[in-house]
Amino acid sequence: MKNCACFSDELNSFIDSWKEKPGNLIMILHKVQEEQGYISREAAEEVSVRTNTPLANVYGTMSFYHFFKTERPGKHKISVCLGTACYLKGSQDLLDEAKSLLGLKDGQTTSEDGEFSVEPVRCIGCCGLAPVISVNGEVHGKLKREDMAKIIADCRSESEVPSAVLER
């Protein structure tokens, strides 16, 4: 079978080495998302064909595990912790503010301009800094709703979030 041009040579080789192994689907989907940032319909169809797995099973796996994304992520990824400590300290307000500032509608996670993705997560593991968000993998804590505008503006200008905002 011809390898998919939508995948790198490395990913095609990985799929070839895993396609016959039990439990292969999750490993392959992780690798696809690692390379592409999400799993497109084309990628899901290719995985289905290459692993001889019904497309419904591929999508079933992708929808069961919240880690898998079917929408192209924004350039800047904002994860808002909704774990117990963060939630009690106002993280839902941070999430609502980020969505409002970026014009995200219900169910939408990526801004229209493709610059931002905003998603709730269950626990980042920094409960002592609650409420916490992660911006492009960097954790920021002890935030207030009004801090979100500055964080988003700083991301737009490609500058770092000032430490004064990070360590109240």
TrEMBL record:
Family membership: Belongs to the complex I 24 kDa subunit family.
Record carries keyword Metal-binding: yes
InterPro entries named in the record: NADP_DH_HndA-like (IPR028431), NuoE-like (IPR002023), NuoE_dom (IPR042128), NuoE_N (IPR041921), Thioredoxin-like_sf (IPR036249)
Keywords associated with the record: 2Fe-2S, Iron, Iron-sulfur, Metal-binding, Ubiquinone
Native organism taxonomy: Bacteria, Pseudomonadati, Spirochaetota, Spirochaetia, Spirochaetales
GO molecular function, one term: oxidoreductase activity
Organism (species): Treponema pedis str. T A4
Cofactor note: Binds 1 [2Fe-2S] cluster.
PANTHER family (UniProt xref): NADH-QUINONE OXIDOREDUCTASE, E SUBUNIT (PTHR43342), POTENTIAL NAD-REDUCING HYDROGENASE SUBUNIT (PTHR43342:SF2)
CDD domains referenced in this protein's UniProt entry, alphabetically: TRX_Fd_NuoE (cd03064)
Cofactor or coenzyme needed: [2Fe-2S] cluster
Name the UniProt record assigns to this protein: NADH dehydrogenase (Ubiquinone) 24 kDa subunit
Binding of [2Fe-2S] cluster, residues: 81, 86, 123, 127
